[in-house]
Amino acid sequence: MAKKEITTKGIVIREVMMGEADKLLTVLTPELGKITVRCRGVRTLKSHRFAAAQLYIYSDMILSEKDGLYSLSEAEPIESFFDIRLRLEAIACCEYFADLVNTVTVEGEGDAEIMRLFLNSLYALAYRRELSVRLVKAVFEARLSVLLGFMPDLTACASCQKEEAAFVDVAGGEVLCRDCALSSSGSFDGRERLLLPVNGAVVSLFSYVATCEAKRIFAFSAEDDSLEMFYRLTERYLLYYIDKKPDTLTFLLSVL
Ligand SMILES: [Zn+2]
């Protein structure tokens, strides 16, 4: 089959060296989803592809495709998120996000919303210093859970319908009021409950992050004690559903 030329935007989320001068890149694109792209001669200094063919750089790319295999012909950086590289905790968080995105997406399939979340979160890590890395991490985890289809039902206590959430039952994807949580025997419908404390503000915050416009995802404010509960909730919640603790998270937690 003849070679086909494809123009796309893309961000490199993983790279593996191949031999002396080539790289295999895992690239997230809006239309093609997650793809593997071979990049030849990337280590030679005169390579014009060098600057854009690196991790966590968002670029305009021209790919050539033959028999379902992609190789990089041209790349021009749009955004390098340079400032992420100035802080260890921001780099560690970025690696954790990339690891998660790589885990939850399938080659040849993609989700433009997940890509947008990734880009918006990298932007926040790089340029929104007023947002703590912990906060960016928690928002990313909450939104990713929802994009993967694991939105908890936050409307009212799942048992008595009172609108006073005191716990999220992670395993059930629902909330319970204090009375119902205390009177429950620890299991429900034959499964263990996994209860994490919340308050009304955390429930509102989770709902906001779940449903707001992608570009407004960090446009909220909350009290410190609610944020603390939110941080504890989002990581447990997401990891419960993807059923994996990435190594990059262990490293991130050691530097946060
Ligand atoms: Zn209740």
Strand content: 25-35%
Number of helices: 7
Secondary-structure element sequence?
A: EEEEEHHHEEEHEEEHHH
Describe the global form: elongated
User: What is the highest CATH level, the class of the largest domain?
Assistant: Mainly Alpha
Number of domains: 2
Q: Order of strands side by side in the largest beta sheet?
A: 1-2-3-5-4
Q: Could you say which structural class the secondary elements and strand pairing correspond to?
A: alpha+beta
Distance between the termini: 50 Å
- Radius of gyration, in angstroms, nearest whole number: 21 Å
Low-confidence stretches: none
CATH homologous superfamily caption of the largest domain: Recombination protein O, C-terminal domain
Task: Kindly identify the CATH topology of the largest domain.
Answer: de novo design (two linked rop proteins)
Largest pleated sheet: 5 strands, mixed, barrel
Folded structure, characterized:
This protein has 256 residues and is an alpha+beta fold. It folds into two domains: 4-79, Nucleic acid-binding proteins (OB fold (Dihydrolipoamide Acetyltransferase, E2P), Beta Barrel); 84-150 and 198-255, Recombination protein O, C-terminal domain (de novo design (two linked rop proteins), Up-down Bundle). It is 37% helix and 27% strand. It is built from seven helices and eleven strands. The strands form three sheets. The protein has a five-stranded mixed β-barrel. Strands 6-8-7-11 form a four-stranded mixed β-sheet. Strands 9-10 form a two-stranded antiparallel ribbon. Strand 9 and strand 10 (191-192) form a beta hairpin. Helix 1 (88-104) packs antiparallel against helix 7, helix 3 (133-147) packs across helix 5 (200-211) and helix 5 crosses helix 6. The longest helix has 19 residues, at 224-242. The radius of gyration is 21 Å and the shape is elongated. It starts with a strand and ends with a helix. The site of zinc ion has 8 residues, from helix 4.
